[in-house]
Amino acid sequence: MALIHVSSNRLSARDHAEFARGFELMAREILSATGVKVGFFLDVLPPGTFAPGSFRPSPELTGPYLKAADSILGIQCFIPEVWLTGSPGEADRIAWKRDFSRRWFETGIPFLMDVSPGYDAHLVFPGSAYYGYTDRWLEALEQMVQEFGGAPYVYNSWNGFTEGMAGMPLLRRYGGDRYFLWLKRLSLVAFRRGDANADGAVDLADAICILGYLFGASGDPCRAKVRLCLSASDANADGAVDVSDPIIVLSYLFANTDGLPPPFRKCGIDASRSALDCNRFPPCR
Description:
Blueprint: E1 2-6, H1 16-34, E2 40-44, H2 63-68, E3 72-76, H3 90-105, E4 111-115, E5 118-120, E6 130-132, H4 135-147, E7 153-155, H5 178-186, H6 204-215, H7 221-228, H8 230-233, H9 244-254
Parallel strand pairs: 1-2, 2-3, 3-4, 4-7
Antiparallel strand pairs: 5-6
């Protein structure tokens, strides 16, 4: 269960152990009443902000008790930076979010980095904060995803479009597909184009492996290897793995042609609409 806006008006600011114990009691009560075991992801409201609650958990003081609680599955916040007081600039809001995320990540509790392209809720909450939607904001959150857990992240969209958080292509005046592609990029696995067998080098073996995937017997190991990261075998980046791809690799190796389309010289991602799946690519970990 994901619980949003987690704080308490029944506890004092020092009741860290009691706060964690409450979730244990809740999980036991649910188990007793339904026979279903549950755990909780918490949207912890930050101290030192205008977020509601007389008790708001902190990573340093509450974190150890939450980590020891069997019912706590992880920290999964929902735009905690929206609770900042005053009128912080973008740099200040980014710095605060990075510090807040780092501190919870360092507790050792499973941490899902929350991301959003920005916040604009004037349609439902007139006068609320407005921030984000800039290259600087998007790049900062992309970096935080890598810093605080890598793959585990969460895109919370409570009121969707009316809070400026629609995760799909929009009309051009609302950003077009910019934020959709950004979200897609966050979930992509880094790879190196042409390294079909994922051994860390682009060489003759890769052309042979692509051919094995296309024409080999059912037991050919390259059938499984290529499927793990089809993008790596799409040597010409045309959105398909076919006979033209081993030809491109061979041309690069023996005909002195230019390198393959990026990412080629180093690990990277392909966020284009034609990008194929890449679920795992060990050399770029």
